[in-house]
């Protein structure tokens, strides 16, 4: 049950809300707010969430009250401090605009900074120069400036191990890793997996609703609210992989989701999709994106097809072959006709059986005159070996010769005479006149052979049995011959089929290369206005020059791609823009405000972490040269304006980064310590533009009102804006995050 103090606190906050100083859209959810506020207790995060809820409705006094409550229980709550416009400097929390005065009040710090400026004036801009400046700053206690120069060192020479170590990195598996960044990457990976499961279920349900005429409009309205960057992989798996009917929906979703991931998927649709309407929409969306997010990878799609030469298979002695770009990648050999493949790939050869007396064992076990004998051989008796050789030379006298050789044997005679041969399996038919020996040889295997001798009794019956055996043996040989012939044909067919499959696969790969090349060239021409065709080297040189020289961006103009490049025939505005602040735009540094074009590497600029909302002065690691850019002037209510390029990003509360060209009158933008509304948006033509790159920052506060904008780095939108208000209901219960 809420305490009396909690109830009084809610009453005070609600009374402050009724006396708010700014108009609000309404007090929807006030009952839920009261319930949540009563249960917030001593939980700092709960009060911060309630402060964001109040801020979103213009209840500024109530917001400040909740932020004060949060800091009472956690004085170092960085989100609460950031929302109040406070930054930690020299172990103290100060208003962001009080830091410069604090620095000037410290004579020793002023002297160190003056000496630092002299060192910078004397130094160059090489990796060695910045490494030396980093060491100098560390020696004199300017740690933020030191980190900025070490970062500038590895930007110029990534092989500088000393600079990496000074930045807190260590070598692992050929890479430089930082424990903080690794832990953050693990959290992001876990967050992405959880988000994928959630979005997969939700988007699958919405895709099913698109097939229902009754639900289609409601589903489209819900899809229009999807802005989470973590939904991007699910959009691809649900709508792009779901089939061509959903590709346009996927393109719309990627267009409304910010981030490099959605940009790269738009580029894939613009290059490879076969639907001209989908390609048009994807290109229109890419025109409004930072070109650094996709131009480099798209240029890499410009490739020459592989030169494929094939040599057909012309028989066992003339193998086929495939050459790729002059290199032999595979040969295809047709097997010889007399090679028959038995189970497990063993070769089978039909051949007569020959006895090697030195390799055969003889051992007699029985004998009786005029009877049939059963014998096992052993190599220990040379007389038996000679007798067996004589029997083979004269089959008609074999029983008598063998009987004489074993006349001294003691055991009673069995009926049959058997031979065990330990080298290969044989089937042997033997009569009193001659030995008919046939064999099937499996090299390397051990088998047994049977040799039978009979007396003169029942000759006709035994002749019939021998005829049956001969017929069965002939059938077996014919069956084996047919099987071997079929195996040979199958083996030849497999070789030819593999040859054709490999050739067709390479040709299909070439067609994909050609398709990607033509699509990439069409996209590049559409967004840049250049006509370098399919020449990858020309595009690469231009892209390197564009990044290095800060050349002027092309003006917006009507553009139709040449039919030579291929579909689609796009008629869109070319908008290849940079992220720039107009010359003269002031930035907030620890030593006061200065124009953006006067900023140098090592200066510390005020920024705000888009993940937590924390304010901090961060070192500059790179600056851009001046470039003529198209500009948009944003005029703010209650005074102040800012001039930026169309691609420069500003922070819209509750949403995140948006390009300047999407800002409209009435939109609210984030400033240090609060929000401000836009009163006018005007295009003013070409201006000189500059920007900076901050160390581990990504954002900076600029202008008289300290408007939150992005630096010159690639925009990585947070999964959830730090200033997104909670959804409150009467059942809301404050829980620590």
Automatic annotation (TrEMBL):
<dbReference type="InterPro" id="IPR036844">
    <property type="entry name" value="Hint_dom_sf"/>
</dbReference>
<feature type="region of interest" description="Disordered">
    <location>
        <begin position="453"/>
        <end position="485"/>
    </location>
</feature>
<dbReference type="InterPro" id="IPR011990">
    <property type="entry name" value="TPR-like_helical_dom_sf"/>
</dbReference>
<feature type="compositionally biased region" description="Basic and acidic residues">
    <location>
        <begin position="454"/>
        <end position="485"/>
    </location>
</feature>
<protein>
    <recommendedName>
        <fullName>Tetratricopeptide repeat protein</fullName>
    </recommendedName>
</protein>
